[in-house]
């Protein structure tokens, strides 16, 4: 019988690639999101794996809406979170940059949010930290109900949290702080499952259209990274900390599945490790 994998945020930018990788690896995959809808794609390869996933709607802040799904689950992935406390920035990333580059940068979050938040959950504390802690605790409660606490069983279960490599210039410190606080809380539950903490940097999709905003940002960051590596030869530590390599959603997904399959692994997976797995 195939192992059961639950991906919260499975129809998102990274989540859908985790689902794809898991289907390819033979997992029984369930995607949980607020809408419960499958991601839209015109690509034949995507349509094939999308049909293999169970797309389900639930509210991560309301465990009663999904705790039944966790019964018998071997692995749970939390692939939710926000870069900015502005619920419009993700919509902006799906648009094409305008000629007014300053306005465009502000719109994707390189500056203060001029809009009043309409979603009370749309904060670093709630989306990046509490949603993960609530999910991990719910998973723990289901494990306790099953009564399978022997070490061999614990090693068969994992909880993966998508954290972050570092903060970003012009992004509030609350972003990375909320990620690190969530990591600490999840690590406390290692007697129930293996915590897998992924720390990717800026992510891009290998199959995305080159005219999309993420692709422009990806290209700019890669140029900076190459310049620091070949021109400055990584001699300035503050530049090394500031300019980090980008990573594809496919690389992150592959790394997650690799660590998930290893019953002896738990802990942090750094950006460098993700890039070389």
What is the helical fraction, as a range of percent?
A: 40-55%
- CATH class category name: Alpha Beta
CATH architecture: 3-Layer(aba) Sandwich
Flag low-confidence runs.
98-117
User: Gap between N and C termini, in Å?
Assistant: 27 Å
Inertia-based shape: globular
Helix/strand order: EHEHEEHHHHEHEEHHEHEH
CATH superfamily: NAD(P)-binding Rossmann-like Domain
Q: What's the total helix number? A: 11
Strand content: 5-15%
The oligomeric state of the chains shown is: single chain
Biggest sheet character: 7 strands, parallel
Number of strands: 9
Rg over CA atoms, rounded to whole Å, is: 19 Å
Q: How are the strands ordered across the major sheet? A: 3-2-1-4-5-6-9
CATH topology: Rossmann fold
**Whole-number tally of structural domains:** 1
Descriptive notes:
- One of its GO terms (molecular function) is protein-containing complex binding.
- The chain has 277 residues and is α/β, with parallel strands linked by helices.
- Helices cover 41% and strands 13% of the residues.
- It has helices at 15-24, 44-50, 89-92, 101-107, 124-146, 151-156, 174-187, 213-230, 237-242, 249-261, 271-276; strands at residues 4-8, 28-33, 54-57, 75-78, 158-162, 194-198, 203-204, 247-248, 267-269.
- The chain has a seven-stranded parallel beta sheet, sandwiched between helices. It has a two-stranded parallel sheet with strand order 7-8.
- Helix 7 (174-187) links the parallel strand 5 and strand 6.
- The model is unreliable at 98-117 (pLDDT under 50).
């Amino acid at each position: 019988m195939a192992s059961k994998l639950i991906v919260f945020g499975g129809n998102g930018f990274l989540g859908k690639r985790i689902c794809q990788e898991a289907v390819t690896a033979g997992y029984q995959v369930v995607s949980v999101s607020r809408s419960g809808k499958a991601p839209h794609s015109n690509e034949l390869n995507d349509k094939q794996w999308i049909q293999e996933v169970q797309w389900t709607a639930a509210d991560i802040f309301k465990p009663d809406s999904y705790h039944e799904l966790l019964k018998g689950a071997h692995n749970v992935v939390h692939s939710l979170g926000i870069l900015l406390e502005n619920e419009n920035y993700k919509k902006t990333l799906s648009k094409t940059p305008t000629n007014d580059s300053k306005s465009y940068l502000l719109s994707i979050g390189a500056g203060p949010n001029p809009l009043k938040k309409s979603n009370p959950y749309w904060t670093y504390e709630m989306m990046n930290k509490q949603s993960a802690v609530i999910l991990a605790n719910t998973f723990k409660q289901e494990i306790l109900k099953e009564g399978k606490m022997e070490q061999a069983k614990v090693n068969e279960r994992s909880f993966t949290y998508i954290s972050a490599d570092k903060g970003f210039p012009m992004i509030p410190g609350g972003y990375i702080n909320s990620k690190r606080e969530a990591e600490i809380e999840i690590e406390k539950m290692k007697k129930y499952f293996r915590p897998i903490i992924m720390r990717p940097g800026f992510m891009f999709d290998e199959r995305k259209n080159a005219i999309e905003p993420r692709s422009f940002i990806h290209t700019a960051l890669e140029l900076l990274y190459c310049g620091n590596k070949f021109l400055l030869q990584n001699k300035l530590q503050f530049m090394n900390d500031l300019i980090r390599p980008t990573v594809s959603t496919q690389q992150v997904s592959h790394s997650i599945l690799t660590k998930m399959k290893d019953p002896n692994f738990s802990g942090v997976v750094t950006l460098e490790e993700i890039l070389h797995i």
